[in-house]
Write a structure and sequence with these properties.
transcription cis-regulatory region binding (chains A, B); six-stranded parallel sheet; DNA-binding transcription factor activity (chains A, B); Peripla_BP_I (chains A, B); disordered C terminus; LacI/GalR-like_sensor (chains A, B); homodimer; four-stranded parallel sheet; DNA-binding; 12 strands; alpha/beta
Chain lengths: ~350, ~350
DNA sequence: CTGTTAGCGCGTTCAC
DNA sequence: GTGAACGCGCTAACAG
């Protein structure tokens, strides 16, 4: 009955399917007990140099790698974090994701990603599903309603939010200071002399959108009128909403994000509207592309990778690794205005329609 | 010694950590055996309507979700695919990733992502690591040497490549017809009257780069000179290499990809070089941004999501799901030239230096 | 220091 | 149509 894996391999060699070696195969190969192999690999208990070498050789020879499912089953932890993002294609989230991944890697954690395709309704399920696989979940800019989030926080052991604080900050979160950033943009535009500006709204349910709205309300007044234009969070949304923004007669357009501004810029170009000559344009986030675009976008710098890293740290300190259960912290990341080429003083005349604007 | 999970739960209730319910908890709740619960959930064997309802109720009440680790252990499969990409921030890979994810989802498979940060040396380990967690791995545009790939293919049960065919097509792969695409670009430029063109090279080890080179060799001749300029695969690389491209005196610049062309465009603008008036520019891949840029980029359309989907299908048909082991297929995706605004006939005079070009 | 034993949560045999 | 028992790969408890 010692017909072991090595034998099988020979027989199935034609199929070239190398069956994964188990710890028992390694133990047999090294002529030790499975426990010794485990000890060498996990380093929990000392093992004599001789045996250790034999085990290491066997591991290399067989190409053995422990099965994480079995490890997870036993330890009750998977050594993985889940990350839920609205859209990996959005450079903003791609960066946040990288931040989490890099930080997690340092602690030897794997990252699992779920893309909800900007469908707020899918977030809850995605997080729940990820939580089956991972020890915790990082929720990026969730659009789900407050009470859904609260319920989720009870079902998912280690939940961390990015750019969303739950009711009373029950859920640990790292958020950008959108209010300050948006205020900076408003101040900048006002100083340039703009009095009528349009704002391209992001997803209504986004927490960050509401924070921006607070800043907008605070900044607006008789000498600084803000026209709200429904838009969205993608370049395509920006492209679509650009005409409406122009129609407000504003001399400056504030986009929800750089990614949105990208689409706006393209549409403006199609319409023959020059930025910043005819109209000023601002973004938010400072994605890498913004410096490559022409004109270079005036925006608010957010350290996106850092956001991801901070989220990881929140996860780690919430007891996911050691036992120090420190729930409910909310950390705020700064947002700094970056003035570039897409903003300038308004032209003498108000431009109610793009076509006439050019004429 | 029957101090079970339910007991523990009561004690740690203060921490508000809801421990995941097990199938046994559900069975107790529904007053049936664990086996019955399993049968209801997997639907493998018929169960009486009465019991089925009781089980479903219990599942909902407890919020029970089967532990995938345990399932994986038992079934010897995890119901997950790994995807290794050089850079998730690259819109190209983001799209391919989405393609895999969407297709996998339909078969109820989860997607695990590893980002190698464009470090070819990290690919091997990343794939190996992913293969511990997943039933197979999709390797996107791997830069690793041929023999490393061959070795990897033996260690990873279900390996599929995107944009890379291994020696003799041993590894199932879906590849873009780079050669045809590149040939199309060359023909287009030639027809416009360009005789001296620069090519911004991608990563030397990329299979797709070698395919492009074949097309370039075939197209080049006394009346179509191609100047090779080392570059890379990111926008930043393109930005850096733009000057060198101009210095060749070419009237058209072919970028490795749209993503690279983006950086080139930005640099050209800084230099006051107008596209396509002073110099024509082409990309490859047709990422969404390319239509938003000004000028809109002439490029080669590649259905990126489809690439991902086809990779998934290759994985699925390689016996990862059923047993139909159909190894070594290589499928080729078409590449279609999209003529937009960044290419035009060359200006009358050759432009050896950007500054003089404008004057 | 090392080997043996038990069991993590689940699905799938077997008996009934 | 249902329940009891076994084992997936691994490691933490015990024995020696």
């Amino acid at each position: 009955m010692w017909c072991n894996a090595a034998m099988d391999r020979v027989r199935t060699d034609a199929g070239a399917r190398p069956p994964r070696a188990t710890i028992i195969d390694v133990a047999r190969e090294a002529a030790v007990s499975p426990a010794t192999v485990s000890r060498v690999l996990t380093g929990t208990k000392p093992v004599s140099a001789d045996l250790e070498q034999r085990v290491r050789d066997a591991v290399n020879r067989l190409g053995y790698r422990p099965n994480p499912a079995a490890q997870g089953l036993l330890r009750g932890a998977t050594h993985a974090v889940g990350v839920v993002v609205p859209d990996v294609g959005n450079p903003y989230f791609a960066e946040v994701l990288k931040g989490v991944t890099n930080a997690a890697e340092e602690s030897d954690f794997r990252t699992l990603v779920a893309d909800t395709g900007e469908k707020g309704g899918a977030e809850h399920d995605a997080a729940l599903e990820l939580s089956r696989w991972a020890d915790g979940v990082v929720l990026c800019s969730p659009r789900m309603p407050q009470r859904e989030l609260a319920k989720l926080a009870q079902a998912v052991p280690h939940l961390v939010c990015v750019n969303r604080v739950g009711r009373g900050g029950q859920v640990p979160a790292v958020v950008v200071d959108f209010e300050a950033g948006m205020a900076g943009i408003c101040r900048h535009l006002r100083e340039l002399g703009h009095r009528r500006v349009a704002y391209l709204r992001g997803p209504a349910r986004a927490w960050s959108e509401r924070a921006r709205q607070r800043a907008l309300r605070a900044a607006s007044g008789p000498d600084f009128e803000v026209f709200q234009v429904p838009c969205g969070s993608s370049s395509v949304d920006g492209h679509r909403a650009a005409d409406a923004a122009l129609a407000t007669g504003a001399t400056a357009v504030m986009a929800f994000s750089d990614y949105v501004a990208l689409g706006v810029l393209a549409r403006f170009d199609e319409l023959g509207v020059s930025v910043p000559r005819d109209v000023s344009l601002t973004g938010f986030d400072d994605i890498a592309l913004s410096e490559l675009l022409r004109p270079r976008l005036t925006t608010v710098r957010v350290s996106k990778q850092d956001l991801g890293r901070r989220a990881w740290e929140l996860f780690a300190s919430s007891g996911a690794i050691d036992g120090a259960d420190e729930t409910g912290r909310v950390v705020t990341a700064s947002a700094e205005l970056i003035t570039r080429d897409s903003t300038a003083p308004p032209a003498g005349a108000i431009t109610p329609l793009p076509k006439t604007a050019k004429a």
